[in-house]
Amino acid sequence: MKKISFILFLFPFFVFSQEPLKRAEKILYKHQRNFGVNVHSLGWGLHGRRVWNDNVRWQHFLEVDIVSLKHPKQIKTINTFFSDAKGYDYGKQNSTFLFRSGFGKERILFDKPDFGGITISVIGAAGVSLAFLNPVYLEILYQDDITKEFYVETEKYDPINPNHTPYNIFGRASYFKGFNEMKLQFGGYFKAGFNFEFSKKDNAIRSIETGVIIDAFKVGENAILKNAIGKELPIMAFTNNKNNFLTFYINMNFFFGKKW
């Protein structure tokens, strides 16, 4: 009886040891695309990328970013003398957003095992950065000389206009006001970061990417180029504007990533 019990106890081990556990073969997908939200230290926007696999470790990609950009000293305020006043950024001359388009490489450092996990890779990219500058329009308060009632006029912000002070500004006009006066400025960007991909499905992409970006709109001056390679972005009045911006970013791709 003891021998029979011992044999029955070992029976499962003999059965399962005959053949190792098989896992589904991992497919090397040649193409990827992903879209998501970009949040950085001076704004936010959208991010998209088209990826081609070179081999199991290396990938190359084309990417596009469309993000807002604010001045580091930009602070939102409101006219406290009126309860229904609108918020605005005092001293802001131009609303700015960037369109980046560039080429990059990705190196997989740690691939996820067959049964799940996280793929960790390092990325680097560079390309063109276009700054779109939309002039700021404000609603300015005036008082009728006869009735003494206040009324509002929409005017382009002018830092030297004596009526464009915190006491006279009622708030920001429509963001789309002044689109026909938008100006474009050329520059370049460089990006470096780490990507963490954690989708449970091999053909889907769920990832978070974080790193730094440098947008440069002026790279020195010399007798030949002079100001040809950009200049300071005129975002704010009453303070020094910048020509180079170092920002920390996070790309979040949760819903639209795909491999094939």
Task: Report on this structure.
Helices cover 6% and strands 51% of the residues. The protein is mainly beta and 260 residues long. It has one domain (29-138, 175-259): Porin (Beta Barrel). The chain is elongated.
Give the helix/strand layout.
Blueprint: H1 2-16, E1 31-40, E2 43-53, E3 58-69, E4 76-77, E5 88-89, E6 94-110, E7 119-135, E8 137-143, E9 150-156, E10 169-172, E11 183-197, E12 204-216, E13 244-259
Antiparallel strand pairs: 1-2, 1-13, 2-3, 3-6, 4-5, 6-7, 7-11, 8-9, 8-10, 11-12, 12-13
Keywords:
mainly beta, Porin, elongated, eight-stranded antiparallel β-barrel, three-stranded antiparallel sheet
Q: Write down the CATH topology.
A: Porin
Write out the strand line-up for the largest beta sheet, numbering strands in chain order. 1-2-3-6-7-11-12-13
| Count of individual domains | 1
Q: Radius of gyration in whole Å, from Cα?
A: 28 Å
- Main β-sheet, in a few words? 8 strands, antiparallel, barrel
Shape: elongated
* Helicity level: under 10%
Provide the low-confidence segments as ranges: 6-21
Rounded to the nearest angstrom, the distance between the terminal CA atoms is 59 Å
- The CATH architecture category equals Beta Barrel
**What is the CATH first-level class name?**
Mainly Beta
Number of helices: 1
Strand content: over 45%
Class per helix and strand makeup: mainly beta
Give a nutshell description of this structure.
This protein is mostly beta strands and 260 residues long. The protein has one helix at residues 2-16; strands spanning 31-40, 43-53, 58-69, 76-77, 88-89, 94-110, 119-135, 137-143, 150-156, 169-172, 183-197, 204-216, 244-259.
